[in-house]
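Checklist before submission:
- one chain only
- standard amino acids only
- sequence pasted in full

Submission:
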Amino acid sequence: MTRTQFEEIVERAIAAIPEPFARFLDNVEVVVEDAPSREVLRELGLDPRRDSLFGLYEGLPIEERRDAMLALPDRIVIYYKPLVQTFRTPGRIQREIEETVRHEIGHAFGLEDDEMD
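Returned file contents:
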């Protein structure tokens, strides 16, 4: 899958977020990057030699943001290479991108990993 195709799927996944949730994401930038840096992996307690990451939410959850006057815009990063290297078929890559986008948006709403099912 090309990077352009990947980015189009990410855009469609964002556009598919229902309005009651999407309106809270105005201050959230969504970007595609090749792969997480070694430093990012280490900061998350992951081993760069073995572990990878499909997506990352950076920022304050929405409930905390309301009280933060000078908070920077939040960011969701979707990582291209780990997803296309782990999932080989276009359909599977698309499903995983959509799941990763939803997962990272869950973090924007303050949900922890074990709360997202």
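Reviewer check: The chain has one domain: 3-115.
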